[in-house]
Amino acid sequence: MDWDDLRIFLAVARAESLSGAGRRLAMDASTVGRRIARLEASVGAALFLKTPGGYQLTAEGSRLMAPAEAAERAATAAAEAVSGDAGLSGQLRIGAPDGCANYLLPQVARDLCAAHPGLEIQIVALPRVVNLTRREADMAIAVSPPDTGRLMVQRLVDYHLHLAGHDDYLSRHPPLDRLEDLHGHRMISYIPDMIFDRELDYLSATGVEAAQISSNSVAVQMQAVRAGAGLGIVHDFAIPFAPGVRRVLTGRIALKRSFWLIRHADDRASRRLTLLAEAVAQGIRTEVARLEGQLSAAPDGRT
């Protein structure tokens, strides 16, 4: 049994499909299937059970996971030892909530790729927590620290959110002096049953029970605010990307949240991923400070 066979086995186990594994491996799904069949023939046991939900590990396949992941770590360590200090290269996949993915990670990726031309960065923006156990990403950004799994968790940075509206909308609607005034305004927020983390329940801070316009994406919410569709609680670091949008009731509604960097515990020995994690962490801190710094302190209702 060689490492290439185990590499394909791990990809199928994590993607739970031949096509998903093929995309990750840059390999045709039919080729992945043939390689798995060959591996099963060589070990004399079925490693996967094909179900309507995808490829599920059999008992024999589950037993193979630990040694296969150990071989993966050894192969990674060997590659890093050969590359030495030649620079960071290869693929890095980062999973993140779409606020971070839209407004912070593009600049971080730009700077990292400029510093390391051999690096390829993939940004996975998902309206849920990225599953590192299934290797959906090499590392993930989250708005809450996980309490389960074999994971390394690092607090990155605090960030701030405020109620905001576009000048066009604000000029056409009654002034905002008190929280009670919000009841005469159209609100924009998350779809309630699609809030995947309690830290994303922003609307409760306003005292308004329901939003007239909602989305599972904070980027879509910001675009609705920018279009003059209503008021929404938005990231301060996103406001510089939306000309005409300004904060309101800043002395009455001000939220603080944190970003957390999460890695799989098995990656602790990877010098490459450790260096990349440090660079991503510093990049996010720098961008939050830069963008929030563009919002000057001003009287309540203005930025």
Automatic annotation (TrEMBL):
InterPro entries: LysR-type_TF_proteobact-type, LysR_HTH_N, LysR_subst-bd, WH-like_DNA-bd_sf, WH_DNA-bd_sf. Residues 1-58 form the HTH lysR-type domain. One of its GO terms (molecular function) is DNA-binding transcription factor activity. It comes from the Bacteria. Keywords: DNA-binding, Transcription, Transcription regulation. GO terms for biological process: DNA-templated transcription. Coiled coil: none annotated. SUPFAM superfamilies: Periplasmic binding protein-like II, Winged helix' DNA-binding domain. Pfam families: HTH_1, LysR_substrate. Belongs to the LysR transcriptional regulatory family. PANTHER family: HTH-TYPE TRANSCRIPTIONAL REGULATOR, TRANSCRIPTIONAL REGULATORY PROTEIN. This is LysR family transcriptional regulator.
